[in-house]
Amino acid sequence: MNKLNAKKILFGGSITVTTKNLLTVTSRDYIRELVDKGVKAVTFVEYVPINELTMDLAPSDKEREILKENISELRKEFDEIVLKKNIFNLYFRRI
User: Fold this and answer.
1) Measured CA distances, 52 to 40, 56, 95 (Å)
2) Distance (Å, whole) CA 52 – CA 25
3) Residue 91's pLDDT band (boundaries 50, 70, 90)?
C-alpha cells in the first residue's frame, strides 16, 4: 500500500469479514489506518465457508446486523472511502 500510495496509484480494498475479525475490520482505527495508507475505497464481503470445518467463521444473522450497523457508522466519518453500495451485494447463508 505504501508503494502504491507513493506512486499516486489509485487503489482500494476488499475486506473479508469473519466471526473472528468483525470488530477489528469495522473499527474506526482500522479504517483510519487504511485511509492513512492511501486506500480510496473499501468494500466488506462476508466470509463464505468452503467446507464444514470453517463454518464457524461465517457471520451469523446477529453478526450480520452488527456488521451493517458498524458499516453505517463508518460511512458517517469515512464517507469518501466506505462504499455506499457494496459491489458484492450478495449475502450468503450458512450451508
Assistant:
1) 35, 8, 8
2) 24
3) very low
